[in-house]
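Curious: why these numbers?
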Amino acid sequence: MLQAPYLVFLGDATDPLSIKMAKGVATWKPALCVGQYRLDGCTESANLPDMSIAEAAEKGAKTFVLGFANSGGKIDESWLPHIKEAIENGMDIVSGLHDKLIDFQELVALSSQHHCKLIDIRHPTEKFATGTGYKRSGKRLLTVGTDCSVGKMYTSLALESAMRENGINVDFRATGQCGVLIAGKGLAIDCVVADFISGAAETLSPNNTADHWDIIEGQGSLSHPAFAGVSLGLMHGSQPDALVICHALGRSSMRGLTDRPLPTLKHTIELNLAAASITNPDVKVAGITINTSSVSEQQANEICRNLSQELGLPVVDPLRHGVQSIVDNL
């Protein structure tokens, strides 16, 4: 459904974590992006060329992507004139926010007039059954985290890329709006009705050949009070054979909360293995990825080495070290 190339809209973002949708597609599918459009006050960048909507249209942009995620997933009315300008320049609009583009009648009318599409990729239209927990053929790896926004999507994509390079039969299964935009398919699991999350995850990763791996993008964290429900449903439906634990250094509290320290890696491993064993008693942890961007490369190497010795697992920063050691462990 998504037509490239994209013009990625960053709005007036000032938080680097808020534009992970923009950064995700710019990092993994840069050939699909013609540039970025930023408003006054925006201090963040997806490292794409800055351009106006009119300039992007001249360069052939076909889709205007809302490349951010704010608290609550709201579409700010101050963005509507810019969305309208994109439609008037013949672009489809893609949003991964909780608010739906199709709920704004003025956008619906304008898009109809200009024969453009409003695409709310966060909102699945498919109906799902409840989960069963019955074993499926093929192999599955799920990325899980100590917190939200710790690199589960990046780790998943890095693993898929490395495994392909190793000649392994593998597919990335997107479970969030950013991943869906990058992969061109998938399911935003956090918008599925709670009773059907595990069933939706089973649908996302169906039976496959014995040598095939599905790399399933994790969501939230079992330790996060707000999002653990989604994380648990996704885990039970994914029925993972392997887990990769994702963590970010330097956080004083879980995202969006205060005075809520992140759990230890040891506790996270124990908690996730206990939960995953409900639908796969043979589940194992294959490795740990760490976002070490808050420290120097020397410190990062030392931290990963010490954690690897302590936990007996490969520990890497996917950006600095790659993920080959985790692939080898699989």
Summary: The two ends are 34 Å apart (CA to CA). The chain has two domains: 6-120, 139-329.
